[in-house]
Amino acid sequence: MNGLSRLGHGCIACGSGPCLGAVYAVMRNRGKALAAAALGVALLTSACSAGESKSAGDGNQKPIGRAHPGTVPEDRLLEQQPSSYLSTFALDVDTASYGYARRALLDGRRPDPATVRPEEFVNHFKQGYAEPEGNGFAVSADGGRAGDVRLLRVGLQTRRATGGARRDANLTFVVDTSGSMGEPGRLDLLKTALHALIDRLRPSDSVAIVAYDSDATLVREMTPVSRRAELHRAIDSLDTGDSTNLKAGMTLGYKEARRGFREGVTNRVILASDGLANTGATTSRPILSKVREEAGTGISLLCVGVGSDYGDKLMEELADHGNGRAVYISDAEKAKRLFVEQLPATVEVRARDAKAQVAFDSRQVDTYRLIGYDNRGLRPQDLRDDSVDGGEIGPGHSVTALYAVRLRPGASGHLADVTVRWQDPDSGRAAEQGRTITVGDLSPDLWESGTPRLRVAVAAAYFAEHLRDRDPGHGAQSPYTTPSQGPFISQGRVPGEQVADLPELIRQVTALGSATEDRDVRELADLMSRATTV
């Protein structure tokens, strides 16, 4: 459940509820923890449902949900549905929030609630969606009943790169070498990971390395990976220095990326840092301005976070403005997974400025909320405004939006239409894909008959809400929409959502770890257990 509540829960007309501008202001204010502590919906979880392979994580598993090609008719999307029934958002594949929360809990402390984003918890886990046959997205949907509400999972999936079939890459690493990076698990971890990555890249790829502390230095100009020995020596030379001038590092990094820019390849800057700027421009605005400018010229950004003291807010903002994503690594195993297994296969871009819209059927839906995506909300008209930024999606990436939906009495048939829109990374041409969701797509009981991957997503999202909203001073503030009555915008859970205690959620996720044979799911159960003692 990759929460969409941060997104626009629809365009809300002014009336007895808050006006549109006020609603979006709330959604984009990360300091106000959104999303409800609906954690307990998970308490009813059961073992793996029949008919699905026990190993939900292996390559033989049948994809979860139904993926449908096609495009939702524009008249249905924009004419038949009142604007308050439209939920529109920019896609997001970040996982840094989960990685940092994991680090905090393993260190014996709870994460700062301001760093907890439910959709990034969900992004960390395999979803099992079907892939499209070509470029673009496959759109899947499933869900089920939990108490008096339905949990709806909308899944968007791109095709993986197969057989090494990806374009070449120009990668410019901007490495934080300030004094704070001397802590174990920061620069030492990054250097080991970079050495491993260089050994996995193609000879036709190219790499440049910039280091920064109080100033920025070009350690290695753009160099073909065929000259691996020179790149390895450059990595070995990285050592910690003084203060942290992030702006200087990013400026020089983009300058080198621009100098080595090649048409027809993936041009990307990779920032590796603890995100704690203390020299030069220490606020985000001037740095974000530079990142946004370069993103518009075809150079995307990946932010890799490290360290127990981590500047989460700045790193996430940089990724959002740089048409990229943010991840966090805390140990050698996670670093290897990112730099050796994931990055070489996902370095290119499948879709730019990707956005989605869920149009709920006003005849069937009474109340709904999107879980997560607090700062990714868009106005309904932004879906087809290609000047409005969306998300950058790579090969094999999945995006999940989880909704809590309260239906009208006797609801049946058509439930919602999903549309995803993106721009081709080469031509810039816009394309769309969509599908229709019916009430029949949802199982009678989420926890008895829902797929294991669906239940893992729900559990991960509700655990995130527990960490964020159960903290003193961070009560449940997730906005939900009751369009059938005004519409009204309210705070908290959708009426009828159940609340479970954390021990029951742990029991259910432990069972899911056995059902999926997935080490990440087993680890989630362990992290939940740790959360009960800190």
From TrEMBL:
Occurrences of domain VWFA (ranges): 170-343
InterPro entries in the record: CLCR, Uncharacterised_YfbK_N, VWF_A, vWFA_dom_sf, YfbK_C
Polar residues compositional bias, start-end: 478-488
Range of residues in the leader sequence: none
Pfam name, any one: YfbK_C
Region (Disordered): 52-72, 469-492
Top-rank lineage group of the source organism: Bacteria
PANTHER family according to UniProt: CALCIUM-ACTIVATED CHLORIDE CHANNEL REGULATOR, ZINC FINGER (C3HC4-TYPE RING FINGER) FAMILY PROTEIN
Protein name: VWA domain-containing protein
Species: Actinomadura fulvescens
